Each structure stands twice: as structure tokens, then as C-alpha cells.
Amino acid sequence: MQCQECGSESATVHVKRREGDEESSLHLCRACAQKLGWHDPLEDAKFPLAHFISSMMQDMTSGSLRESSPDSGVRCAECGLSFQDFSRTGRLGCGRCYESFRTSMEELLRRIHGNIRHRGRRPESAPKARPAPESATLRQLKADLDRAVAGEDFERAARLRDQIREFKKPRRESTRRREAAS
Amino acid sequence: MSLNLKSLAVSSAPWLSAQGDLADHVISSRVRLARNLARIPYPSVANSTQLGEVADTVAACTELLETTSPGRYLRARELDTTDRQLLVERHLTSPDFMRENTDLAVFVSEDEQVSVTVNEEDHLRIQTLGSGLSLARAWASASEVDAGLDARLTFDFDRDFGYLTACPTNVGTGLRASVLVHLPALVLTREIESYLGRLGKLGFVARGFYGEGTDVQGNLFQISNQTTLGQTEEEITSGLESITRQLVDQERDAEKTLLRDARTELEDRVWRAWAVITHARMLNSSEMMNLLSAVRLGAGLGVLPEVPRSTLNELLILTQPAHLQKAGGGTLSAEERDVRRAQVFRERLGGPHGAGTK
């Protein structure tokens, strides 16, 4: 059966519509079905991660994170995978994809893992880990706080305590979001 | 002796031996590391030349993989569906190995403690498997295999993100640690859901018998870490170990509660299961899993006379469909398998009346 929309591809999506007592059916190819907004609910069930990613991408492109989502038109220079393909399947094409979609990957990994910095084993040949800037700053703040308390400068200590609290916040927030999504 | 699939189908594996910590509830512990070769696209995108290159590269490492235990490198194209399913049933590779992809391959060590699946979702999936709660040991041997391969191959690695994988949920350590744990009393007392819900908040997840996307059968839960990035391998495995200990404690409490508040009902359930499993002439797979769970519970609580746990573990695997077919020497219909399955149970567990073939 041919697609009723484009007439060239074969129809693989079959939609039954009921308006009052009238029942009509539509037979479409995959591409046209997608264009017209018909969507297979099982597809999300098969790829829960893909669903998670695409809803996250929607968040990013419609919300305040719009500026930080420059990857929507990007293709990986190495394997040619488009960012759209990735948000549909949830699978990357090659190691270079992580570089090609870096900004989005950072946000995505933060939401999945609550973290974007590997702390485990490294291959022999791999460059040494960069010192985590957050933890260095945090250490500094804590040291300052200790000094302020020791010197009984409580006004400064209170300020530092707030800064430390502020510093720890985004991470906790991303963990919460991850729970909400799972 | 080299690894032979036909003899695998009728023999046990060390990870079924019910040795090790908490082996009354924890059947097995597993560590899996996802690794990819640099500069080659991931299997879902790579062409068949590239996939062949990956399969050959790992094949050339077979000797290196054999330093801890001798083994065999099996290419999917040389295996029929039953052989591939046999490897899945033995937990030596994932259900993805059934996919039509002739470039899939797997190295399996003879002791079945180490396996490396090639060209599944990632180029390499290194897996180590052990009996009981033995995550530290599983990580140690996975780490040894990984280090050996690392000396020969260049893995895809990002300075910040760590090991890169086809799916972003595996990035970082690439490590998925899991335990297969039997929690019948928590299921009977309906407490299981609240415990599993809590697992999620702690970064762990419960899945079915064969991992992601499979059903829970026979009250066996596969618990694993949900996140792979930001913690060290030791933190992940020791976290899962402590969660597992807590779960088993809760299970034991629930078992005590059952013995105290519903002893007769519990004994009835266990003895009925024993009666059926040792006398039935046909057993389907899901019925078998449920009966075996009740028998395991009864044996653990001393309701039944002693049944070796290793026998129960073995039966769990040896009566899976591909095992029965491979052992029976040909394709069996579902009904023939049910007959054969019941026969295996009577032979292994049955008394004078059970063992008869009539």
C-alpha cells in the first residue's frame, strides 16, 4: 500500500480515527507520519532513553537554556550522525560525537549521572585528569571559612557559608531532576 | 580440554556453585565494562568491513585474554540460533547476541568467569561473573582483563567524560555491576515495591533475570548501578555490595515474619511446590521458575530436607530452552521441552516415585 500523503513510499503507519460514528483510516509512510505528527507510542517504550533525550532537548530549545543548545543542526564530523538522529535513537555513532555535540552532551550527562567528570580508571595512554575546578574552589572556600571561624569573624563566616551552600546547589538540583525523570 | 557448547548444555558453571558470601540469597555477581576502539564508528553505525576489523582485532587478543583462563573465541556466524541462545541463557552474553549481525563474536573462558562480547552495542563488553556476593573479586578480574587489553588496544577515552560508549548512560567507567538476588519473602509480604522504589533514589535499579527489558521470574531480581560517571569503580561496586547486604537483611526479616505469622501457609506452599516439581510430567518455563523459587525458600528455611543450593542454581540454567535442546540433540517443540524439563527435575530432585519415566 502506498502512502496517502506522498504517494511514493510504502505505508507502514496505519492510523484509525473516529469522529462521532464516522471511522476513517489513514495509511502513511514513516516520514510523512512523523511530519503530520502521528507518533507510535511503542517507540518511546522501546527507547525510554530516546524519549528522555528528546524531551530534554525540547526543554533546552524552548526554555532558558536555548543559547546553550547550539547542536540542533550539527552533524558529527567523523561519522556523519546528526544530532536529530541521536535524540531519536539515544545512541551515538562514534567517539567523536561526544566532541561534536559537546555542549548538549555535558548537559545530558549531568542529567543522567548527576556528574560530568570521570573519576575512575584511565587508560595508560590517556592524559591525566584535569583537577576539578569546583572542588578546588570549594576547598578554598572551606579553608577560608575555617579561618574566619577561628578568627571569630562571624559575619565573614556567614557569608562564606552561604557561598558554599550556593556552590553545592546545582549538583543537588540535577540529582533531583534525574530522579523525577526516572 | 577446549570449550564445547554441547557439553556446556549439560554441565554446571563455577558461578552456579553457590559458594561465597550470602550465597543463600545472592546467586551471582557480575561486572561489565563497556569499551570502544578509538577511531572506529560504533557497531550501530559501522559498516561490515569496520565491524570485521573489530572482530579480528579482538580475535588477535585471544591469547592475551587466556592469561587468566583458557577459552575460546566464538563468532556468531559460526553458531546457530540454539548455540547463541545457549550463551545468553548461561549469562555469558546479553540477549542482544541473538540479533542478526554476523560480525558479533564472544570470547568465553572455560571457567565461564570471563567473557568479552564483541560488536554488540559497544565494540567490547568485558564481563566477569562469580558465585555469591563477590563484586570485589569480579571487579578485580575485570580490571585485570581491561588492563591487559589496554596494553594492546587504544580505547576511546575523553579526559573529562572518561570511557566513551554508544549510549550515554554507560559513559565514564563503562561499568555496570550487578547481583542476581532471590527475594521471595519480600515479594510475598508485598514489601518489595517500596524497597525497589528506594533503590532508585540511591542510584540503583532492579531488572529481570536476563537484564534490561526482561521480566522478573521466580522472584529473582538483578540489581545494578544506574549511573556510571563521577564515581570510581570501587565506589560503585562497594555501594552495590552494601545495598545488597541491606536487601538480604530485609529479606531475612521478612522470612522470619512469614515463619512466625504464617508458618502453615508457607509450609504448604513450599511442600506443594516440592510435590509438583518432583513429580510433574510437564513443566513450562515460568511455572518452573516459580516452583524453584518456593523450593529454594523452603530449603533455605529448613522447611524441606536439605537440597544443595548448587543443584537449584544449576537447574535454573540447565532447564532453559536452548539448554534442553542442545542436550536433547535437536530442535524440540515447546511441549517436548516441557516434558524434558519435568524429566530433568525428577532425575535431579525426585525420589523413587519421582524419578520414574512413566
How much of the residues of chain B is beta strand, in percent? 15-25%
Strand order of the largest sheet of chain A: 1-2
Q: What's the main sheet of chain B like?
A: 8 strands, antiparallel
Helix content class of chain A: 40-55%
Distance between the termini of chain B: 37 Å
How are the strands of the biggest sheet of chain B laid out side by side? 2-3-4-5-1-8-10-9
What does this structure look like?
The complex is a heterodimer of chains A (about 180) and B (about 350). With about 180 residues, chain A is mainly α. Chain A is built from eight helices and two strands; from the N terminus they run ββαααααααα. In chain A, helix 3 packs across helix 4, helix 6 (about 100-115) crosses helix 8 (about 155-180) and helix 7 runs antiparallel to helix 8. Residues about 40-45, about 65-70 and about 170-180 of chain A have low confidence and may be disordered. With about 350 residues, chain B is an alpha+beta fold. Helix content of chain B is about 45%, strand content about 15%. Chain B is globular and about 65 Å long. Chains A and B meet through helix 6 of A and helix 5, strand 6 and strand 7 of B.
Topology (SSEs and partners):
The complex is a heterodimer of chains A (182) and B (358).
Chain A lengths: L12 E7 L2 E7 L1 H6 L5 H6 L1 H15 L20 H7 L7 H4 L1 H12 L19 H18 L3 H28 L1
Antiparallel strand pairs in A: 1-2
Helix pairs in contact in A: 3-4, 6-8, 7-8
Chain B lengths: L4 H4 L17 E10 L12 H12 L2 H4 L5 E5 L5 H9 L15 E5 L4 E5 L5 E8 L3 H18 L4 E2 L3 E2 L11 E8 L1 H5 L3 H10 L2 E4 L12 E6 L7 H29 L1 H17 L5 H16 L8 H10 L2 H8 L5 H16 L2 H4 L3
Antiparallel strand pairs in B: 1-5, 1-8, 2-3, 3-4, 4-5, 6-7, 8-10, 9-10
